[in-house]
Write a structure and sequence with these properties.
By secondary structure, the chain is α/β, with parallel strands linked by helices. It has one domain. Helix content is 37%, strand content 11%. The chain contains 17 helices and 11 strands. Helix 2 links the parallel strand 2 and strand 3. The model has no long low-confidence stretch (mean pLDDT 96). This is Capsule polysaccharide biosynthesis protein. Pfam families: Caps_synth.
Length: 398
Amino acid sequence: MVNKFEIPQEYSSQLRVVEPRDRRTNDEIIKTLMDPKPVTSEKNLWAFWDKGVESMPEWCQRNVASWVRLLGPSWSVRVLDVVPRSPNHALRWIDSSLLPEAFVKGTMDGPWTGPHSADLLRGAALFTYGGAWMDVGCILVRPFDRIFWKQLEDPSTPYLVAAPWLFDCMMANHFVAARKGNPFIKAWHDLFVHFWRGRTNNEGIGHEPLIKFCETMGFDGYASAGFIWDMKVDGFTLNQYASQVLAWWRLCIINGGEKEGEFDYADYAEKHILWIEGFKEMYGAQVVVGMEGKDLWDAFNTRLDADPKSEEYQRAHKMVWGMLTKCCWQKVSHAKELTTYPDLGMLWSMKPGTDNAPGTFTELLRYGAEHFEQVREEVLIKDYKKPTTVMTKGLYEP
């Protein structure tokens, strides 16, 4: 097999060359996703794009097609939507009783209807069918079977859920995985839907009594974990936008109270969730370059034939080869109306083709994700411990 790119000597002990599992083109794969098959196992990868998979930006379509190739035939990828009469329409797959009225009736409004629609479907899909949920902005580098699924399906391990750990009890909801019918996922979903009762957008959710801590949370926790953005909004608005992760946080700090039928959510989070190190495993580009979208865009679009001694080349080289050797995937954000600058996802959407431009480090990343395999056997796992102070409260108890 002739390789388009060679593994540098400095990384040769960390990567090996592999044959792609699926040689179909991106267009061929996207076309098959328009005809989804019935669920036959728990190895499902769920995602969402409101206008349908064929309407996703090109870079997101490349992401999803790469998922299919990298995961292989044992996994089924489905991208749900809200397109009338679409075979992928969310309500064909998710029972309407699990969703708030605003989603079912199509009355959601505000600047973030897409992300919040995905939030409302995430837990419902995992509880109903099992598998994983991933945002379409993620570039997968390592197969799921070598990240979390072997642990989740192995009865000798305690793990039944997997999620990225950021700081304290904060997870990143761009990815989450679980076995079918998981009670923690059901409680998480139910609590989030509870926040949406009587609402058509997220305005005011941050004042919900059950997540009162949102009002004073700010940016400090994110900054401590390496997430230092130039924000357009204040801390309250950011955390209210991400209220689904605050629902998760609440579960991690309550023991279910004293009523019959509740269970200890905080204890469950410690013992049964596989907490994957979020920043190092999923934000490898930002670890090297920082959070600003233009800096990331410049680094990814550095030419492979640039002066190898130049600062820009060395930065891009370290970034991409670091991602290929040490990351599970790369999360690329749109951050619409959240940051003062366009994030990388916005720039790739505005400049089609720059996520895979020939002769650049983006082309190397796309190629390497499917043709190189990490030698390391394990990914970085957080030794998560529940808070020393846990509240004796039920799921809906203020």
